Amino acid sequence: MGETFVFTANTRMRLPLAGLAAATAVVLSACSGGSGAGGTSGTSGSDDTGATAAAAPTIKISPVKGSAKVRPDKTVVVTAANGALEEVTLESDGEQVEGEFDETRSKWVSKRPLRPSANYTVSAKASGDGGPTTATSQFTTLKPKVELAVADVTPGVKGETVGVGMPIMVTFNQAVRDKAAVEAALEVKAQKPVTGAWRWINDKLAIYRPARFWPAHQTVTFTAHLAGVKAGTDTYGVEDHTTKIKIGAAWVSYVNVKTHMMVVKRDGKTVQTMKISAGNGTTREYTTTNGIHLTMERGNPVTMISPGKKEGDPGYYKEIVNHAVRISSSGEYVHSAPWSVGSQGRANVSHGCINAHPTQAKWYYDNFHRGDVVKIVGTNRALEWNNGWGFWQMSFSQWKKGSALKSQGQGQGQEQEQPEG
Fold this sequence. Notes:
The protein has helices spanning 20-31, 179-184, 358-366, 396-399, and strands spanning 4-7, 12-15, 58-62, 77-81, 84-92, 95-96, 99-101, 107-110, 119-127, 133-140, 146-148, 150-154, 161-162, 168-172, 186-190, 196-200, 205-210, 218-224, 230-232, 235-237, 241-247, 251-256, 261-266, 269-277, 291-294, 297-299, 302-305, 318-321, 324-326, 333-336, 354-356, 373-377. It is mostly beta strands. The model is unreliable at 1-46 and 411-421 (pLDDT under 50). Residues 251-377 form the L,D-TPase catalytic domain. This is Ig-like domain-containing protein.
C-alpha cells in the first residue's frame, strides 16, 4: 500500500493512509467557525451555560372556553402545573363567585352554585420559575325547564315587628324534590343567635323554629341562596331571596282557665291583668285548648260562626265581635265580650275563645304583634302542633326530625325541650 503525505505550512509529514481521517478532522477543527452547526439555546430551553430553562406554568379551566348549557350546580375548577395560582376571578355581570384554593395553590374550586341562564368569565394568574402565566375562559349556564323561587316568607311585611315566638315560614313556587339541597341553601342569621331547625310541612312549605323563643329586641336575617341549586329533575333555583325580620319585646300572656285570669308580661314585667271567661267545655269545640299559642292575626270586627253547623241547627250561632286577636286556626281568639262581663273572672261561658272586658280587649288588640306568646293552662284539650301556629307544642328534638338534613339544629345556643316563658 502506498503512502499519503499531508503538508503543513512549514513541514512536510508522511503519514500512513489509516491516519488520514484523524488528521483531516484535526485540521478541519482548527479551521471551523464559533457559531456551531446546530445551536440549541433557542429550541431546547437551555441558557448560555447549557442549563435547561424552567417551563412556564400552565393553567387549565373547567368548564372549557365556549361551553354552553353548563349545569348551574357544576363547580368551576382551575388548576395550575409548574407553578402556583396567584389569583382566580369568576364573575357574571360584575358579581363575583367565591372559591377556595387548596394548600399548594395548585387548584381553585368555586364554593356556590352558579346562576342559571348567565354568562360567566373566569380569569386566572399563576407564577413559577418559568415566569407568570394568565388565562381566561367564558361559558354560559343552562336555562332550567322548571324554575324554583321563594313565593312567600312569613313574616315578611316591611316594617313589621313580631313576637319572640314567631317562626319563619317559607313557601316555594314549585314542589321541592331534593329537600336536602334546598334546605342547605337556607340561612338564618340572628344578632343574638340560638339553635334552630327547619321542618318540611309539605313539598312547598318549610318552617324554621328555634329551640327556645327568640331573644327579644334584635334583627333576624333569612336568606335563601337558591340561585343554581338543583331542587329536582330539570329544576333549579333562579334567584336568591333575603328577608329581614325584626323581633320586638317578649310579650307573653298567661291564661289560667280555672282561675279565669290572664296576665300579660312584657320582657318579664307584668303590664296588664285581665279577668277572662274561657270555653264552657260542654263539647270539644267549646273547650279552650291548652298549650303554647301564638297570636296570628287580628280583626275589628270579626264574624264568628259555629263550626260544622248551619242556621237552624241546635247550638248554631253567628256573632260579630270587636277587637279580636286570633290564636289558633280552630277559631280561638282573645276578643271583646261585653255580654259576658259579669262572668269574666268567675265562670267559663264562651264557645272556646278568651272573652275579655271591652276596654282591656282593645288594649290587647292595640299592642298585638304576630308571634306573641299565649300560654293557656287549665283544660283537658291540648292544642295540636299544626293547629294554627302551634309549633311550640312539639319538643325541639321532635321538631328537627322534620329536617331533610342529617345534621339538624343550626345556629348557636343551648337546646331546650321546652321554650322559656
